[in-house]
């Protein structure tokens, strides 16, 4: 049996590096994991006034997470943080209060950037946000992928061997993390 993992690529851009990395992880995942790659596209803005009768898109996203065995975040860094659309998706999924759809789910975080810092500030913000609303966050290896601009071919296939090695190490560690933290 494979564990179902929701892999959230935190950008809306069609050819985002986060989406390409998430898709590469799905291909590299061991047989014990089945990654479903999603983006925050189509998740309406969180508004507490709507909690009594949540929009259908909120309910569908929450249900997808609730049915999963874990969650992977693959995020770019925007202005030294995570993209607003990713924060909105987290806000939607973490409600209503005390009933977070992430609760108890093992979590992994990968940040990325075509620049030198690899989105480290975005990853650190997720590390601050998630502990109160999720299950255990994978602590090692920490992955801040820099220089991802030349890591993929025109079809979105991972071609940079050094990145492939790092992603393989991460997804193998995440698989062990998920197996260890299943109730």
TrEMBL record:
Pfam families: FMN_red
Signal peptide: none
NADPH-dependent FMN reductase-like domain residues: 4-146
Gene3D superfamilies: 3.40.50.360
Segments crossing the lipid bilayer: none
Protein name as catalogued: NAD(P)H-dependent oxidoreductase
Taxonomy of the source species: Bacteria, Pseudomonadati, Pseudomonadota, Alphaproteobacteria, Hyphomicrobiales
């Amino acid at each position: 049996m494979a564990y179902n993992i929701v892999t959230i690529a935190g950008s809306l851009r069609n050819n985002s590096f986060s989406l390409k990395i998430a898709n590469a992880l799905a291909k590299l995942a061991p047989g014990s994991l089945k990654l479903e790659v999603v983006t925050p596209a189509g998740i309406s803005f969180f508004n507490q006034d709507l909690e009594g009768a949540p929009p259908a898109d909120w309910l569908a996203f929450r249900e997808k997470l609730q049915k999963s065995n874990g969650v992977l975040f693959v995020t770019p860094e925007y202005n030294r943080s995570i993209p607003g659309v990713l924060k909105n998706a987290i806000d939607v999924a973490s409600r209503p209060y005390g009933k977070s759809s992430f609760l108890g789910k093992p979590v992994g975080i990968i940040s990325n950037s075509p620049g030198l810092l690899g989105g480290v500030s975005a990853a650190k913000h997720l590390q601050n946000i998630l502990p109160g609303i999720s299950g255990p966050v994978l602590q090692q290896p920490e992955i801040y992928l820099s220089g991802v601009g030349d890591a993929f071919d025109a079809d979105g296939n991972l071609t940079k061997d050094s990145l492939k090695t790092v992603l393989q190490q991460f997804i193998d560690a995440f698989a062990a993390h998920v197996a260890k933290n299943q109730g």
